[in-house]
Structure formats: structure tokens, C-alpha cells
């Protein structure tokens, strides 16, 4: 019997993470931030009062699947997670957002990936434990029109190869955002993905790691061109308060200023930009509009705690556009 094919508008592939946000607002006799060294220190054995605590879903693929769904794109997430209580929280969030999880794999012998985001005033430290995954996900019936491929922890290369085959087989557009594990492993390990990428989304530091192997103060125009030379057809670079930049395959250059607003934390700002951009782009909007949607979404997310709380809905972004 033939399996029923599953046609998917946007397929998001990457890890899902449960983030614990822990906020400490002030210096105490047991905790201190040194502005000169940019170091946060705690007295061993001390008990420190946290001002705020919150669980929120995270992970690039998770954030983008939710962000695009809120903006009217039918998104599906393909990921492997565990079967513990944290994994159940993540799945509950995805169901609430109406993201298609029919291709989500729960490993009964594994746990969810978990991170601790420690905020000390405006400063942040992230502790993360990546669970080793085999990513034995059945892709036989998956027919994507568009694929967003992003960060994964250990043992990421086999699933990347499967997704690349899926892209080629279905002539799907590929949008790529390499994670820290991929960048640490080096460009050569994902060069085949770069060569097939329609649009790459990276921040300035990530772009420098791709082109130079290290972070320096590069000229943004040169950086766009050098990333494009590494393989992708189109390049989108975000640069915090300096805004975002785009170079298309015809050599046209675009820029978008960062929009002013209250900044509570910057977690998920890049994913929010990508969600806004991709949603507009997949709806047939031009690049300028897509970048503006990205900036609006990023601004909103930074005014809330967590990577998903402030993600805009379609009516909200159209009102502001």
C-alpha cells in the first residue's frame, strides 16, 4: 500500500529547546557584575534570590515555525525530542500554536534539550545541554515546497544530508541558518548545504565565521559579497542596532534600519526577524517589505521575555506595516 504524501508549505528542521529564564536584577554581597572585565561572579555555596523565573519554548526551528504560523504560513516542524516532562511542555506549546507536529519524533529513551538563560540585569549567560540525537525521522512521505534548515546539536550531518536530498528531490526552496555547532565544526562540513541555499540568514558575527573563520569588524558590503561567494544565492545579515542587510543574486543591495522600542531581552530577535521576513517572502511580498516585517517582529519580541511571547500575528504586523 502506498503511503499518503504530505505536501508542506514550510518545513522547519532543527532542535527544539525548553528555556528557563532566571533574572537577577541587582548586585548583592554574593553576586556581582564587573563592567571592566564583563564577568559575572557568584560566591560559591551562597543562596541567591532570583527576581523572576519563567519557562519558555525555544530553539531556532521552534521559534520560526511558531513565528511563521502566527503570520499565516502553514508551518510544519520536523525534529526529534525526548519523552520527559520538559518535552511534553514543548509539544503542548507547539500544539497551542497550531504548528503541524505530525512528523515530530519522541524518543522514549531520551530527554528534551534544556537551557538556562541567566540574566544579570541587562547581561546574559546561556547554559545549554544538547542531547545527542540520531534523528531517525521518516521523510518518505514528506513533500516540502520550502525548507528552513537551522541549528542542531551533535550528530547533525546525517539529517542535514537527508534534508538536502529532500530539497533536491522536490525542487524546494532552501532557507538556511547555521547554528553554533555547525559553525564550530567549520564551513567545509556544511559546504554542500551552502551551495544549495536560496537565502541564508545569519548575524554579522556568524557571517564573519563563515567567510573568515573568526569575528572581526568587517565592512558589511564586503561581508555580504563574501558570504554569497561561499555558495548561497541570496544573503541576509542582521547586525543588532545597526539593522539588517540583504544582497540578492542579481547584486541588488537592500537595508533596513532597526526599529526603536523597549528592549527587555534580545533572545530570539534573529528568529523573529527570519519569521517576519520568510512570511512576507512566501506571501509574494518584495524584499523591502520582507525586511520591514522582520524588523517589526524582532522589535516586538525584544520587548518581551522569551523568544516567542512577542511574535506578532498577521493582523498586528499588517496594521503596523
Question: Any overview of this molecule?
Answer:
This protein is an alpha/beta fold. An eight-stranded mixed sheet has the order 6-1-11-12-13-14-15-16, sandwiched between helices. The chain has a single domain (6-17, 58-112, 131-320), classed as UDP-N-acetylmuramoyl-L-alanine:D-glutamate ligase. It contains ten helices and 16 strands. The model has no long low-confidence stretch (mean pLDDT 90). The N and C termini lie far apart (49 Å). α8 (269-282) runs antiparallel to α9.
SSE layout and pairings?
Elements: E1 6-13, E2 17-24, E3 31-34, E4 39-42, E5 52-58, H1 60-70, E6 75-78, E7 80-81, H2 85-96, E8 105-106, E9 113-120, E10 123-129, E11 142-149, H3 157-170, E12 173-176, H4 180-185, H5 191-194, E13 199-203, H6 204-212, H7 220-229, E14 234-238, E15 244-247, E16 253-256, H8 269-282, H9 287-302, H10 314-320
Parallel strand pairs: 1-6, 1-11, 2-9, 7-8, 11-12, 12-13, 13-14
Antiparallel strand pairs: 2-5, 3-4, 9-10, 14-15, 15-16
Amino acid at each position: 500500500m502506498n503511503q499518503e504524501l504530505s505536501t508542506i508549505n514550510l518545513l522547519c528542521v532543527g532542535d527544539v529547546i525548553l528555556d528557563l529564564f532566571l533574572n537577577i536584577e541587582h548586585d548583592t554581597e554574593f553576586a556581582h557584575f564587573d563592567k571592566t572585565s564583563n564577568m559575572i561572579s557568584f560566591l560559591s555555596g551562597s543562596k541567591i534570590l532570583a527576581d523572576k523565573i519563567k519557562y519558555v519554548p525555544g530553539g531556532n526551528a521552534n521559534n520560526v515555525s511558531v513565528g511563521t504560523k502566527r503570520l499565516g504560513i502553514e508551518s510544519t516542524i520536523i525534529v526529534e525530542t525526548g519523552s520527559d516532562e520538559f518535552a511534553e511542555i514543548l509539544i503542548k506549546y507547539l500544539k497551542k500554536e497550531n504548528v503541524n507536529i505530525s512528523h515530530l519524533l519522541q524518543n522514549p529513551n531520551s530527554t528534551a534539550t534544556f537551557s538556562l538563560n541567566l540574566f544579570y540585569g541587562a547581561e546574559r549567560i546561556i547554559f545549554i545541554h544538547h542531547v545527542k540525537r540520531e534523528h531517525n525521522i521518516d521523510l518518505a512521505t514528506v513533500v516540502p515546497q520550502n525548507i528552513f534548515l537551522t541549528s542542531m546539536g551533535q550528530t547533525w550531518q546525517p539529517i542535514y544530508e537527508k534534508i538536502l536530498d529532500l530539497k533536491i528531490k522536490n525542487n524546494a526552496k532552501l532557507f538556511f541558518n547555521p547554528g553554533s555547532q555547525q559553525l564550530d565544526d567549520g564551513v567545509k562540513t556544511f559546504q554542500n548545504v551552502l551551495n544549495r541555499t536560496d537565502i541564508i540568514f545569519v548575524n554579522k558575527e556568524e557571517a564573519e565565521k563563515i567567510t573568515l573563520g573568526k569575528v572581526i569588524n568587517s565592512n558589511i558590503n564586503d561581508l555580504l559579497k563574501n558570504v554569497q561567494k561561499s555558495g548561497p544565492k541570496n544573503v541576509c545579515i542582521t547586525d543588532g542596532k545597526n539593522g539588517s542587510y540583504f544582497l540578492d543574486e542579481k547584486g541588488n543591495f537592500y537595508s533596513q534600519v532597526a526599529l526603536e522600542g523597549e528592549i527587555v531581552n534580545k533572545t530570539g530577535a534573529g528568529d523573529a526577524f527570519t519569521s517576519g521576513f520568510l512570511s512576507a517572502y512566501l506571501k509574494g511580498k518584495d524584499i523591502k517589505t520582507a525586511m520591514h516585517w522582520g524588523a517589526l517582529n524582532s522589535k516586538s519580541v525584544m520587548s518581551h521575555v522569551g523568544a516567542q511571547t512577542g511574535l506578532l500575528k498577521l493582523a498586528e504586523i499588517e496594521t503596523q506595516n
